[in-house]
Amino acid sequence: MHLTRASDDVLQLALLPRGGINAYLVGEVLVDAGLGLHARRIIKALAGQTVVTHVLTHAHGDHVGGAKQVSDALGAPVWCGAGDAEAVRAGKPVAASRVQSLFGWKPVDVARELREGDEVGAGFTVLDTPGHSPGHIALWRERDRTLICGDVFLNLNFYTTIPGLNEPPRAFTVDPARNRESARRLSELEPQLVLFGHGKPLRDPAKLAVFARSLSPN
Ligand SMILES: [Zn+2]
Fold first, then answer.
1. Which residues does residue 148 pair with via DSSP β-bridges, in sequence order?
2. 15: CA distance to ligand 1 center in Å?
3. Are 160 and 105 in contact (CB under 8 A)?
4. Measured in angstroms, how far is the CA atom of residue 58 from the centroid of ligand 1?
5. β-sheet bridge partners, residue 11
6. What confidence tens digit (pLDDT) does each residue in 97-146 have?
7. 162 CA to middle of ligand 1, Å?
8. Of these four, 5, 19, 80, 211, which has the most CB atoms within 10 Å of its CB?
């Protein structure tokens, strides 16, 4: 695992090369937890850090997989978007395809269901960004224009890992048209720093805007 300080209080936990799968520590909030096999490495990497809350961007196995083990070890309650809470608790995604239904995880207790406008700590506010999953959320911090976008955008090709902005794969996206609406909404915030579930951080709001505008409405 590779640890990178993306800004003053943002630590990127790159769980695969090229940021193939990321988790983040923002202030005292851990965002996402990779696959089940990443849990022990995350726990080790966070030794000595204070983690008070574990927030999940959405109910997919490469974000929730390590959540049960990590939250138990750190004693940090799990919060996630209200629309994905049932899936997180059940240990299986609302699947867009038969292949996706194979990727489950250990059921996780959800202590709080998040909604648009909720504050999660470290100055971040919840934005409802449905489409990739029904209850997908992004986290936005106005003061330094930092956006944790989950999988609304990817900053690499999911299959080849070649860097660059992409949409999430359709086989893993319940409503691609809705995800495009969420993508446009996020790009209009003009974030200075975007942190992705997959891919390296982006510090180029114009590039994000051009990409979002290139997406047709469906
Ligand atoms: Zn996903």
1. 139, 195
2. 15
3. no
4. 7
5. 5, 25
6. 888 888 899 999 999 999 999 999 999 999 999 999 999 999 999 999 99
7. 18
8. 80
pLDDT digits (tens, 9 = 90+) for 158-169: 888 899 999 999
- 209 Cβ contact list (under 8 Å, min separation 6): 187, 188, 190
What average pLDDT does this structure show over 175-194?
97
pLDDT for residue 86 is more than 90: yes
Ligand 1 centroid–CA 132 distance in Å is 7
Residues around ligand 1, an ion, CB closer than 5 A: 60, 151
How many angstroms is it from 65 CA to the middle of ligand 1?
11
The structural domains of the chain, ordered by start, are: 2-213 (3.60.15.10)
pLDDT higher at 184 or 48:
184
Per residue, the 3-state secondary structure of 98-150, as one string, reads CCHHHCCCCCCCCCEEECCCCEEECCEEEEECCCCCCCCEEEEECCCCEEEEE
Q: What angle do CA 146, 44, 81 make, to 5 degrees?
A: 40
Please state, rounded to an integer, the average pLDDT across all residues of the chain. Answer: 95
Ligand 1 centroid – CA 59 distance (Å): 7
The CA 178 to ligand 1 mean position distance, Å, reads 14
